[in-house]
Amino acid sequence: MPTTDPVIRTLDELGDMDQLLRVADRIWGSEPGAFVSSSFLMALVHAGGYVAGAFVDDQMVGVSFGMLARHEHGGRSEWCLHSHITGIEPGRQHTGLGRVLKRHQRDWSRARGLSAVTWTFDPLVRRNAWFNLHVLGAVAVSYHVDFYGALGDHINGADDSDRVLAYWSVDAPRSRAADVSVLTSITPDIDDIVVAIPDDIVEIRRQDPEAARRWRRDLRARLGPLLDEGHVVGVTSEAKYVVSRRPIEETLAHGS
After folding, report:
1. Contacts of 83 (CB under 8 A, 6+ apart)
2. Burial, 158: exposed, middle or buried (Cβ in 10 Å; 0-12, 13-18, 19+)?
3. pLDDT (tens digit per residue) in 185-206
4. Would the pTM count as exceeding 0.90?
């Protein structure tokens, strides 16, 4: 058990970058160096990007890095932090450390005058959707088919890497409400659309890969076109996405 509170700090030394990549390899079960190189991370920091580690008892157990990016939505263009990877070692997951690391990203972004943090996540993974939409208060704003191509790590397997883009405002009432308490399961409004997702796609991939592929194809066909005009506001207690077509500013302005 840890004897100290977790510490999140930004990294700017080459040795730290080497350590970050070793931790990332353990988290995703990937081949060494599968993400980027340490030299790239050094260049990223030099260019104003974000690279950070989460430490418990002086041991790095979580990692995150991202780049400055322009995000287009609602006819506006704004500067955001796009988080490329954020992860916690398996033995430290479900401890609240992931939330602490994401909040560090948000605070870093706010201090630099950025509007939001964005990142991609697999829309089939219910627990990630819940964390992103309900624990953090983000919304999902666009669908991207096979975004990264074949990944082949122990999390994604051989499945297509479809992703949705999460948008997390640094200052919206919705985000601040999630700081106080997890946003509750969504009850759809009459104009909302619901789309089913599996309870545990990781287990389905393990037990029945063809069933997992059917889930992928069905969700892509259903959710992809909806996000051309709307955004996901949350997940119901019956494991269904709730897609709203109202202006995103209305969703962000409410604490639920």
Report:
1. 50, 64, 65, 66, 105, 117, 118, 119
2. exposed
3. 788 989 999 999 999 998 998 8
4. yes
